[in-house]
Amino acid sequence: MKWVSCPCWGTNDDENSGEVADRDPVLLVSGMGGSILHSKKKNSKSEIRVWVRLFLANLAFRQNLWSLYNPKTGYTEPLDEDIEISVPDDDHGLYAIDILDPSWFVKLCHLTEVYHFHDMIEMLVGCGYKKGTTLFGYGYDFRQSNRIDQLMLGLKKKLETAYKTSGERKVTIISHSMGGVMISCFMFLYPEVFSKYVGKWITIATPFQGAPGCINDSLLTGVQFVEGLESFFFVSRWTMHQLLVECPSIYEMMANPDFKWKKQPEIRVWRKKSEKDNDETSVELESFGLMESIDLFNDALKNNELSYGGNKIALPFNFSILEWASKTREILNKAQLPDGVSFYNIYGVAQDTPFDVCYGTETSPIGDLSEICQTMPEYTYVDGDGTVPAESAAAAQFKSVASVGVSGTHRGLLHDKRVFELIQQWLGVEPKKTKQKHSRTRKVADSDFSFLEKAFVNTIREIPIPSREVMEEANGDDDELRKNTTLQRRSSILLLLLLLVLISLSATTRVSASVDESGRRRVIEARSGQDLVWVVQLSDLHFSVHHPDRAIDFRNLLGPALSLINPSLVFITGDLTDGKSKDMLTMKQNEEEWLEYESVMQDVVKRSGLNKTLFYDLRGNHDNFGVPSLNSSVDFFSKYSINGKLARKDNINTITLETSERKHLFVGVDTTMSIGLRGPTNLFGHPTDELLTSLDSQLSQWDDDKPTKPVTKISFGHFPLSFSALTHSKKSLRDVFLKHSVSAYLCGHLHSRFGKNLKRLHRSGGVSLSDNDLFQLNMRRSGADESATNCSFGASPDAEFWEWEMGDWRKNRAVRIVAVDRGHVSYLDLDFKSSDSHKTIVLPTFPLDSRFMSTSLARHRYECQHMISSSYDAIRAIVFSQSLVVDVVARVYDSTPGFNNLVMEAPMRKHGSTSGASFYSLPWNYRAFEDSLPDRYWLQIEVTDIKGRSTLSELRPFSINGLSSRVSWTWNEFRVMGCQWAALYFPILWSVISCLLLAFFIPKCIIVVFKKQYTLKKFVAKKGLFTLVLWILQDLCRLPVVWFGYVAYLLYLIFFPWFSGEVFTDSGKRTYMTIMGWVVTTGERKHEYVGEPDVMVLVIPHLVFVVIPSLLIVCCFVAERELYKEHIRAVSGKKEDDHNDRGRKKRWQRRSVLFSKRRLVRKSLLLASLALYWKHFKNCWSLARAYEMNVVHFPGYSLVVPLLLLYVIFKTHKAP
């Protein structure tokens, strides 16, 4: 049987079989990160590849490669002592340096980003070199020093093998990058061995004098081997940083201080300095030369640490490694080329290469130097290959036969045609003149081309153009060969023309802006060529000094994602920073977090390619913790946010996107407190009457334009309407939104932990919010869509709008895309924690999801034939993809006979695109899908890209008629979206207090006024719940200290301050809190209540979970004492009325287990008391941390209940 090989899996060794070529052997030596590394447990035979891998890369790297330097041995050793790191020597050493992730998936998809020496190996094999005879590879553990014994002895053994196997021919070494540094060390330490075995040395991109920019930044912030969205699947910059700090090889590539640089490399830092005489700060640019940089490294890395196995491990700048690296540099400076060895040098040019590194900016300076590790640098560039400056790579101290600069990137030189020509020339070989399969060449991963430009360049390289020799060797099949070649080239040229058109479109379809100077209107013209716009929403970023991963992921993921999605606008709806201490109890502004936010947003805007003015970031309650007023010293939002920097000072921001057919009005609303309190009593939005008037005006700005285009109105803000208070005149945001029939209100605040269906359809009619609408039991008001449609003249459906709360970035890395397609509003939520969430994104824009997007307005227009039929005549979708999309298929399922009953399947046609986004549609007979059931038909769209990857949209129901599917809230979803908490505060408060007061006054009134006594004896005689309750409460009245204590405490809670504390950030001023809010002093010494209903988060839990439970426990103690007393009487025979009643006596004996001397009931009550004490004092501790208080500041709140409970425990200890 003859097997046919698939090109996906590489070439067979037999392809290059034949006579051993009469040539010197070649040894390929890789550089930093250029070798496969395996990990295995000691005493175990199984190995896993930990470098390079594309799946679970970050996790495997942390678990296996994080290391510590051992100064006693000079080796860098894994943190897990049971792990061994090795380099596979398969395929004569070539396997480890060929394709760095040799998984079937990488080969199948031809992911050339990890093809390292692959193309060069194929070139050499094509020139007649045979693996294992004249072609060898040497991979090594690049974490170690370039002069460590393990590497030196391994290289010596490899040279001996190549020398002997080839018939004692001298070896030609071809080294790349740091491999040249290692060869220099070997040449110094083993000069006789080198002279004996080596005849030629060709080096590529070697940092002979160091790589200042890249190495300095690697030690301070790490290195990202791949950029863009691909970086999400690879080892993160921070993870790599923790390894590099402990790598001698990195220290050995620091800039050579003895080299005469044209300009000395520097590290620059914009520093924030505090003046000694006053509190003012200044900003200075500090420069650190080669020697001064050591102190900078030490200060910047002083707090660097990682967590491994539950332990914190400090990773400061390692002076032991620096000392070792200094000796290595001495060796490199002294190394000499032995006589008889020819040296050739290739180095990269024409690429911007980092040289000087700068951290911070003049507007966002660095405070403490340790902040550098979380800062993205700015570079000063010189000529080079993008990593190694040409000045360093060309400055070998050895006399070279040839030293050639080639235009190319650091890794790209290993695949460069010019480099291959030079190597063939210096080796004295040329490719065999035989027919060969076309071999794909690599597109360098570190290019900055856009998606379409990459596809264009790759397509050019894929055009199969036969060589002249091949054409000459063709015999009778010349005509057929020429015919096939012509067809291939024509098809390739057509593809190239298509890509050129797409590139030109992507260059011109970015949103362009114009400003309508009438009023405050800003208009942006969306030139997508469609009646379609889309925007991106993010919310609840919570950048925190205690959780740097939030900002790191935001920086690494969002910029490339926005570049792919290319939205018209980007909304960040609040909680930009966290403002919490590590224990999450103290909540106030932290300027470090705001500086980080500013820096990250600058980088995101730059990497996204979007104009900064397209970003709108709103203030959330966390951004307002402890801010006494706008433009105060702690109002960092105004100082560091994008809105603040662009002077968007108003609480209302409007912008209009305009297409040829429609206007899309977006209105942002900031309803945070005008006087920002510290948390937790800063939870609600507080719109004012003035703000609602302004909002009303902005939403109506296009209403009077005649003639006018249709206007779709969307509002965005931070707070859900269930967490928004009413104004002084009892108006609400909901009233204004309904008045103007906005399509949707986009918000955040609640995060994803309460559920996935945090959505609500608001309708006019019935009881309005202003009339104290307390509850909505389901996502849609019951009966809202059940009435018949009235199509009479002038009739219109009730006003309505959707409220869509979105998940948070804080824990869920959520991103939302909102699209408006011919007036139909849809959205898609992305989870950036998922590795596949943003390679290909499918957003169906019509038909709409009948669960979360359909409205009665759409139903009315459809049934009354008022809709625009052209907006119904096709299934439409937007596809965002990093790779070229080759197929988009729409499928419709009928769920009535069976969920998998496919009723329509057809390919969708592309009818437009912008950068990264393509528009697809499928004409259909929409009336065939009319049905009385809103969820009978379900839609799913499948997208296949050029790499064969398939992406499915979420299967979702639709209703052409505009009917709505029912989705019920869970309990958690209902209590945050269905309850109008601002309106519920006082009803709950006065209900609880009234019940408590009645519990004390009714039994007292019965005793004093009606002279009726309810006792245990009466309860035993009559029984009944009413008698039981009155007996216990009257017994409580007979403890005057307890009765008067509780009544006085309740009156105190109603009329007096609960406690005093600091509600502003570092103000030093105290104020006090009542059930009406915090009493603060504003201008002209005016006192006003702030934080109502926000204080309910303290008031209601204290009453419900402390006061009421304590009263119940007290009542139980009183009842237990009476029962115990009765038990003692029964046992002792002192009971007068029933001492001869044997049946009753037996019942008392059965109760003796509970009311004996052990008093098990009392002990249970004591445990309940301890639980209550723990709960109460935990709350007190949280309040003390939140508002910087001690017991002196809230004695009544903290001590009354515990003391009353303690008194009752004491009084009921013994029966009287």
Automatic annotation (TrEMBL):
Membrane-crossing segments per the record: 984-1010, 1041-1059, 1095-1119, 1189-1210
Source organism, top-level taxon: Eukaryota
Keywords: Membrane, Transmembrane, Transmembrane helix
Domain Calcineurin-like phosphoesterase: 535-752
Matching InterPro entries: AB_hydrolase_fold, Calcineurin-like_PHP, Ig_TMM62, LACT/PDAT_acylTrfase, Metallo-depent_PP-like, TMEM62_C
Membrane as UniProt keyword: yes
Keyword hit for Cytoplasm: no
Domain TMEM62 Ig-like residue range list: 837-963
TMEM62 C-terminal domain segment(s): 987-1195
Pfam families according to UniProt: Ig_TMM62, LCAT, Metallophos, TMEM62_C
Protein name per its UniProtKB record: Calcineurin-like phosphoesterase domain-containing protein
